Amino acid sequence: MPVSLHHIVIDAHDLPGLARFWAGALGWRILSEREREVVIGPDESAPVGICFMPVTDRKAVKNRLHLDLTCGAQDRESEIERLLALGARRADVGQSGEESWTVLTDPEGNEFCVVRPKATLTG
Question: Which residues, given as ranges, of the chain have pLDDT below 50?
Fold first, then answer.
């Protein structure tokens, strides 16, 4: 059997706080909360979740990996506003203003994008 994706791991200072942000952003829930690990997902049988692990160092540069979120075209602006209300912030990483995505950061400064809806992963 080939390997499969199990968790996306995000380093965090405030594990429960960042887990709550992402659970709220994605409509997921906290599945496991320990001192050195918090896991969120849509449910316990989901094939992929997000795991938050503690770090002591501060984020200093743009992430090499980030998450892209999407929603219906008619909901995009209201979803961006909802994410901002949860604690996200707008980020400038050199956009021209013509992009089909909006760059935000989570409460600990990790970049993510809200992209236009696509019918396929390559569309």
Answer: none
